[in-house]
Amino acid sequence: MLCDVVEAALVLHQTLATVTPPSTEAPHKEPGSPETGHYQVTGTNGSVCLLAYMGLQLNISFSSASLNQVLTVQDVVNLEPNTTKASGSCDADSATLRLSADANKTNLTFFFTLNTTSNKYHVSEITMSAIWPDMKEPFLARNSSLDYLRGTLGFSYMCREEQTLDVVPALSINTFQLQVQPFGLTQNKFGTAEQCQMDEDDMLIAIVVGAALAGLVLIVLVAYLIGRRRSHAGYQTI
């Protein structure tokens, strides 16, 4: 009898040990790198006052309606340029770029601010609203205390490397192949690009690697020439 009780207890212990607590987060999706979209905003005089070339990827967390109201879905969605419309406005010291996708079910807005004293601009605010089929309720995110994509008046800001713009805990944005200029455009074209730190670091690494390879080639060449000269000298002595 005692053996039966011990065996039953062991079986129950093994069963409980193999039970995994339910996760409160759904699996993460990876759609790959997004396509680069070309977006522009036209001012009241008919000229382009804001240009942006970039691929955008949304990292968003929301409550699922179909799975469970407690379950949080972490989704990664690429913004498709061919189904995204750009609009916005430009003023002397502020500009907005509004991107509307999926028949206006996703709206992403970048607010740029220009410091007229330092002639520096940056993204000061990002807002996003979305109504997707599986959302338990409409998604809304806003942060008006940001300092991203900092550039100089008359110059464009460029960052070809992937970078992440954290907006709120439930939303971050990955940018790819980005070039943007919200102020001081000339003839509807980008000004000279100011590269981000990541691009400069990559360029520095490339220069260092190139210099190291060139130095290695030079060392091998010098060693070859010295060896050849010694070989000729030996022949002359004989």
UniProtKB/TrEMBL annotation:
Positions of the UniProt region annotated as Disordered: 19-39
Domain Lysosome-associated membrane glycoprotein 2-like luminal: 34-185
Transmembrane regions listed in the UniProt entry: 203-226
Keyword terms of this UniProt record: Cell membrane, Disulfide bond, Endosome, Glycoprotein, Lysosome, Membrane, Signal, Transmembrane, Transmembrane helix
Signal peptide start-end: none
Subcellular localization, as worded in the UniProt entry: Cell membrane; Endosome membrane; Lysosome membrane
One protein family per Pfam: Lamp2-like_luminal
Keyword Kinase among UniProt keywords: no
Residues in coiled coil: none
Main location: membrane
Record-stated family: Belongs to the LAMP family.
Name of the protein in its database record: Lysosomal associated membrane protein 1b
Organism: Hippocampus comes (Tiger tail seahorse)
Biological classification of the source: Eukaryota, Metazoa, Chordata, Craniata, Vertebrata
